[in-house]
Design brief:
By secondary structure, this protein is mostly helical. It has helices spanning 2-26, 30-59. The longest helix has 30 residues, at 30-59. Belongs to the UPF0337 (CsbD) family.
Length: 60
């Protein structure tokens, strides 16, 4: 069950990060754009964590 939760959180962070990046570019705000990139990377890591949990869960 943790697999789906991590994947969902990851996807949410990726989407929010992409929105922040776009808003940062649109308003010429490099700090907001950088925050968006960081949040997107966090989401990618969470999604990977979910995939690993899923792979390990299938093997156990």
């Amino acid at each position: 069950m943790g697999e789906l939760k991590d994947k969902a959180k990851g996807l949410g962070n990726e989407i929010a990060g992409n929105i922040k990046q776009a808003a940062g570019r649109a308003t010429n705000n490099p700090q907001l754009e950088a925050e968006g990139m960081a949040q997107e990377r966090k989401g990618e890591a969470q999604g990977l964590k979910g995939k690993v949990k899923g792979a390990l869960g299938d093997k156990v």
